[in-house]
Write a structure and sequence with these properties.
Elements: H1 3-25, H2 35-56, H3 60-71, H4 83-107, H5 109-119, H6 134-151, H7 155-172, H8 180-186, H9 193-199, H10 204-207, H11 217-221, H12 232-235, H13 251-260
Helix pairs in contact: 1-7, 2-6, 3-6, 3-7, 4-5, 4-6, 4-7, 5-13
Amino acid sequence: MAPEDLIRVGSYLSVLGVMATWELLAPRRMLTASKLCRWGGNLTIVILNTVIARLFFMGGVVAVAAMAQDRGWGLLNWFDGPVWLELGLAVVALDFIIYWQHQVFHFIPILWRFHMMHHSDLDLDVSSGVRFHPVEIVISTVVKCAAVMVLGVAPLAVVAFEIVLNSTALFNHSNVKIPLALESVLRWFVVTPDMHRIHHSVDPRETNSNYGFNVSWWDRLFGTYCAEPALGQLGMKIGLEHLGPPVCLNLFMMLRFPFVATLGRYAGRTHP
């Protein structure tokens, strides 16, 4: 395993362990479904996604970044500035692209079919942060590879961004209680669990808001920010309104979900 892979895996497992422990000690909401069933499916699909990424993207986005750097491709390769500034610009630019990619997955029906599986989770906790359909993972990886080539992002910046993205996804999907005074300050800078939970509401007006994964600026800047759900953090319902009785999906059911589920009232809607 390459050194950058060891760093990413180590940071991922560390954040997963910290957030899972925090959820046990200070949960924000009562869970409604079997944690054993949900975690079994969510962790199984992340293993499958890792295998698929290895098979189809040898070296991944980091390898693409190294190739772009060697050949002088991309905007940042024309920029002669300090490493820390280039690193910061690259991470912010990639986060901006992921924000818009997330919106596109909600707006275009065929893409929503695959992203909808992520929203079908019956509860929201740290395991939800890794619950993505393999097709969405492949598309997202292609988008990141293209962005890295156009921007000329250095391999180090890619590793930094992926660590930040994975860590914040685990954090903001977590079912953890943060003191409200601290949470109200944090959400000016990062996407907090309370902020992202609104995005997983069954209400389409709330689902189509709070698209950010890392920083909260993009939602505020582009009018997709929702401060609080209509029914409150403890009263809101998680999931998709049109699926009928709640069902905990196993791996096979999650893989076939985009091909059998109806779209509901979500795709093609913009934030009010």
